[in-house]
Design a protein that fits this description.
The chain is built from 18 helices and 22 strands. It is α/β, with parallel strands linked by helices. An 8-stranded mixed beta sheet has the order 1-3-22-11-2-10-8-9, with helices on both faces. The longest helix is centred in the middle third of the chain and has 24 residues. The protein folds into 2 domains: about 260 residues, Alkaline Phosphatase, subunit A (3-Layer(aba) Sandwich); about 120 residues, Gyrase A, domain 2 (2-Layer Sandwich), CATH 3.30.1360. GO terms for molecular function: hydrolase activity.
Length: about 475
């Protein structure tokens, strides 16, 4: 079927040191690892130090104060395929440590919601992740801000960081439509309902004109993008995955088998680059909370399918292959019963809002962990003062221009991003791995039920892994 329809371990502090210690006490692995020089046990200490330096006393992370940022992954993929793509930002050389720098093919596995905390726990318990600790390089990255799926899948598929892509959240005001827009489901907000939009011709003006896959194709490299059947052919996927073969799948065991078969097939060889998006873990975290038994069980199922199907095929392949495992964000535990709804707390806030193209007040964009308010310019000072007083101790309320000035979106935010951000940002507080949620009730459509969430700057939301491992025979 294919895709057509050991240097010594470094001492580190914290829970990850327990993984290294556990490894050092393990019996030798019996798994076949044919690539000479790839048997390095390495936790990238430089990445840990860089992330710690980007983390403030309030446990919020400035994503661009560490060179280890998710936005550098496309550049790493291109360089690993031997291409000079001039993408920015880039990742430090230490992200691959002692592993080779050039490969015949690269596979990126994006596990939605796999924060660094989940990796720490899984690394000691699940063989799939333990392989990367034993035989690869494990780096700690910062997610982009906002720590959302929309921002990160757009970056991975287009090569554009959030500051340039402008796709930053689940929902935001789109000036071209004059209404709130949900990019991933390609729909607009119509009152308390969402309405699908007719797909635009490609390239779609609502998304970046260039994709990472068209860039690879210009350099003679083939690509495949593997996603769930239910959205592999969505307008968003068609737009941001242009240039790649789009492959749908029903579940993780199936897609792991298909990738494995492609590595063995001479008639249907695997592409030079394959990007697999896995959404199960994030859903379990939202429903049950990160670290819950249900969340842990789903991670185990994902790891088991990849361990049993994909890794053995790669280990027997002659093609030199780099496998990268990463995530778009982590999650915080949240209590939906504690949610603060702004339009109930301050009913007058509806009067502050800008209007959409039909004259209706705009509800906020973003999520309950990073809310963006579209406020009439002459009401901003009034709104800012009232919100700061009402949310004292529960959230930071500031002008979005201040967030931009801090550089959390990146050094040079594009006009496309700036016009979508709104005037006021609300960043709910957190303590440890638990966070506040602040939402918008509306007519009840905004009621919160989730037990895990993300979007803000808390370290549990922002800390993500980048795991690298090399396969193949010379």
């Amino acid at each position: 079927m294919g895709l057509h329809q050991r240097p010594p371990a470094h001492a580190v502090s914290g829970p990850m040191s327990e993984i290294v210690s556990l490894h050092l006490g393990m019996p030798p692995s019996t798994f076949p690892w044919p690539l000479e020089g790839s048997n390095a046990t390495m936790i990238n200490e430089d990445s840990l130090r860089a992330f710690a330096a980007a983390r403030g006393r309030d446990d919020r992370v400035h994503p661009r104060r560490t060179p280890y940022n998710f936005a550098g992954i496309p550049s790493l993929v291109g360089a690993s395929l031997g291409l000079e793509l001039e993408l920015a930002p880039t990742l430090p050389e230490a992200a691959l440590g002692p592993l080779p720098r050039r490969y015949d093919r690269v596979i990126t596995l994006l596990v939605d919601g796999l924060g660094w905390t989940s990796f720490e726990a899984a690394g000691a318990a699940l063989p799939f992740f333990r392989r990367f600790v034993e035989r690869g390089v494990c780096s700690q990255l910062s997610a982009q801000f906002p720590s959302t799926t929309a921002a990160h899948v757009t970056t991975l598929h287009t090569g554009e960081p959030v500051e340039r892509s402008g796709v930053f959240e689940w929902v935001y005001y789109e000036p071209q439509l004059e209404r709130l827009f949900l990019p991933l489901v390609y729909a607009s907000v119509e009152g308390s309902e969402t309405a699908p939009l007719a797909a635009a011709p490609e390239p779609n003006p609502l998304f970046p004109a260039r994709t990472f896959y068209t860039l690879l194709a210009e350099h003679g490299r083939s690509s495949a993008c593997l996603q769930r059947d239910r959205y592999v052919d969505s307008p968003f996927s068609r737009s941001v995955c242009r240039g790649a073969r789009r492959v749908g799948y029903a579940d993780v065991p199936e897609v792991a088998r298909r990738l494995a078969e492609a590595t063995r097939s001479s008639k249907d060889p695997s592409p030079d680059y394959a990007c697999l998006y896995l959404d199960d873990l994030d859903g379990a975290g939202h429903r049950h909370g990160p670290g819950s038994p249900e969340h842990t069980e789903v991670l185990g199922h994902i790891a088991s399918a990849l361990e049993s199907e994909l890794l053995p095929a790669l280990a027997r392949s002659k093609a030199r292959t780099l496998v990268l495992v990463t995530a778009d964000h982590g999650q915080l535990r949240v209590d939906p019963e504690r949610t603060i709804y702004l339009d109930q707390l301050l009913p007058q806030c509806r009067e502050w809002m800008r209007r959409d193209g039909r004259g209706r007040p705009l509800r906020p964009g973003g999520s309950p962990r990073d809310l963006f308010l579209y406020v009439e310019e002459h009401r901003v000072d009034e709104a800012l003062g009232a919100l700061q007083a009402a949310l004292d101790g529960r959230a930071e309320v500031l002008r979005t221009s201040e967030l931009v000035a801090r550089g959390v979106f990146g050094p040079r935010p594009s006009p496309r991003l700036l016009e979508r951000l709104g005037e006021i940002a609300v960043l709910p507080a957190h303590r440890g791995d638990a966070g506040e949620m602040i939402g918008w009730w509306g007519e009840g459509e905004g009621q919160q039920h989730k037990r895990g969430h993300h979007g803000g700057l808390a370290s549990a939301e922002m800390a993500i892994p980048l795991l690298a491992m090399a396969f193949g025979r010379d």
